[in-house]
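Most newcomers find our protein records easier to grasp once they have seen one. Sequence and backbone structure share a record, each on its own labelled line. Nothing more is needed to start thinking about how sequence determines fold. As an example, a complete record with its sequence and its structure tokens follows.
=====
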Amino acid sequence: MSQIRGVGALLVDTNLDVLHSNSIAAALIPRIAERPRNLIAELLRSSARTLDARSELIEHLVAVLRFISEPNERQQQIVGELSLSSPEFSSAWAKHDVRQPGPTTAQVQVAGVGTLALRCNMLMFTSGHHAVITLEGPGGVRGRASLSYLQEVGDAMLCSRMLPNGAAHA
């Protein structure tokens, strides 16, 4: 994922557990680079102050989770934990909405940038077990400058996790 530059990128499994992220995604969702992290759980936990229209995004992701994830032990764990800890998740899960992965948008407050409109796309692998979620900024000079800034912030964050001898933290 570190080779993907210019857009945020997350590699997820069918439970929306993040397996890997690039530096832009890490700058947008700082704790997402720590594993294991469930994307919905992390958005519920960390985005209260930074994500406008969060409920719509959570509802979208919950409906996608229902579509791409076969019932399994990990899914039951995620649903159980989030149902107890988040009324927002409970409400979305109770709707029983199902949605194919596809494009959506999110308005994110980014320090030093302001509100950034992101286009989010989920691209499923043909195996059906994994997907890449891309986070693209708006077009134009401001959008490119914002993502360039986030690339630098994310690269610095990832470098700061390196040990003195250059080996990465596990």
Observations:
- The radius of gyration is 16 Å.
- Strands lie at 8-13, 17-21, 37-38, 51-52, 104-110, 114-124, 130-136.
- Residues 165-170 have pLDDT under 50 and may be disordered.
